[in-house]
Every structure is written in C-alpha cells, then in structure tokens.
Design a protein that fits this description.
heterodimer, A: mainly beta, seven-stranded mixed sheet, four-stranded antiparallel sheet, B: mainly beta, 11 strands
C-alpha cells in the first residue's frame, strides 16, 4: 500500500498569511493526488484534483502543485473560514490512501 | 442538487452487525460507483471499499475483507455497507462518497461528493 506523509501535522497562521502544506508519497503516484478540506463535524470536501486542478466553486486562493512523490497545497491570503483539517489522498493504486491530516488554526 | 443522504446514528454491542444506507439523488445512480470511508474519533480517513452501482462489482480493502459487504438497490438509488463482528475499535463515522470515475463500472478511487456521515458506536 502507498503511504502518504503530510507535514506539518498542525499549524497556526494569521488571516492574510500564505499557508503551505506538503504531502509525500511512498512511491511515484504521477499526479493522482487530491486535496480535501474537512471542517469540524463535517464531511470532507474536494478542493483540488489531479494535484493542481481546482474543483468547481472552490475559491482561487487554494492551489496545488507537484507530481511524482512530492506535492504542495497552498492557501494564499488565509481567511477565517479556512479553519479546518486538510488531507491529501492518492488514487494511483488501490487502496486509495490519505495523509494523516494537517490541522490549520488561525492565530 | 447532487447529494448522498445517509442513515441515522447506530449503537451496537460487540459482535453485532450494522448496516448503513446511503441514498443518492441529483444524478444517475448507475453511472458512478460508491466508496465507503471511515473516520475513528480524532483520527484520519480510511477507505473500506467500493461498489459499482452499474453492475455490483466490488473491491474491498484487505483489512475489511470478509467482514464487510457492500450492496446497492438501483430501484431506490441506495447503497449499503454492512459491517459484521463489530469491535470497539469500529466506533467511527462512516461516510459514503461518490467515485469520480467517468467510465461506468470502473473505480478511480477519488471522491467528489460525500454523505454527511453515520456515527456507529460499538459499546457493551
């Protein structure tokens, strides 16, 4: 199974900051990577698919990049409503696997 | 709008079974597969398995093989997940999620629409 490692596991940032989360796969997954946002008590929401494509309706301050084993998720100009846990997920091989999550707090 | 509506919370005793439902609306049910993903309290996301709503083909995570059964009822656009021989560590929120595969009957393993989740508590 492919292991996904996210960092950091938590971070605190101020409104307006640029926030970056990284995700590393245990083997080459090409661009078969998604990013999800999960707010407390809610279901995950797809933000980025195929590593860098913004899902319809998602604000443009969210972006993703990378391929192979190393990926980056960025929030430009952090907003209060971005408080959530963010997960990367690979779908190159079954079983699909998720990173352990990055909990984002606003200072 | 496209949505997946899941059944209500369940409380079960160790050794029992639970069956969670997931009713789809707003799209052609048989054009997509449904995966089940669970999340234990304070933990991350764990994929359990997938079923094609077109032909009933299934794929299961090895961890759950033999203990979980996924089914669908196309007449009601509903998917079901049954988990048997419940243990305390099966306590979790169980989500159904639509697979994004554009090819009927195949799995991609990425999910664009999620249900709100069903809390399953296993306790004696």
């Amino acid at each position: 199974d492919i292991q996904m490692t996210q960092s950091p596991s938590s971070l605190s940032a101020s409104v307006g900051d640029r926030v970056t989360i990284t995700c590393q796969a245990s083997q080459d997954i090409s661009n078969f990577l998604n990013w999800y946002q999960q707010k407390p008590g809610k279901a995950p929401k797809l933000l980025i698919y195929d590593a860098s494509n913004l899902e319809t309706g998602v604000p443009s301050r969210f972006s993703g990049s990378g391929s192979g084993t190393d990926f980056t998720f960025t929030i430009n100009s952090l907003q209060p409503e971005d408080i959530a846990t963010y997960y990367c997920q690979q779908y190159d091989n079954l079983p699909p696997s998720f990173g352990q999550g990055t909990r984002l707090e606003v200072k | 709008q496209v949505q997946l509506v899941q059944s209500e919370a369940e409380v079960k005793k160790p050794g029992a079974s639970v069956k969670v439902s997931c009713k789809a609306s707003g799209y052609t049910f048989t054009h997509y597969g449904i995966s089940w993903v669970r999340q234990a309290p304070g933990q991350g996301l764990e994929w359990m398995g997938w079923i094609s709503a077109n032909n009933g083909n299934t794929k299961y995570a090895q961890k759950f093989q033999g203990r979980v059964t996924l089914t669908t009822d196309t007449s009601t656009s509903t998917a079901y997940m049954e988990l048997r021989s419940l243990r305390s560590d099966d306590t979790a929120v169980y989500y159904c999620a639509r697979d994004i595969s554009p090819i009927v009957g195949t799995i991609i393993g990425a999910f664009d629409i999620w249900g709100l989740g069903t809390v399953v508590t296993v306790s004696s």
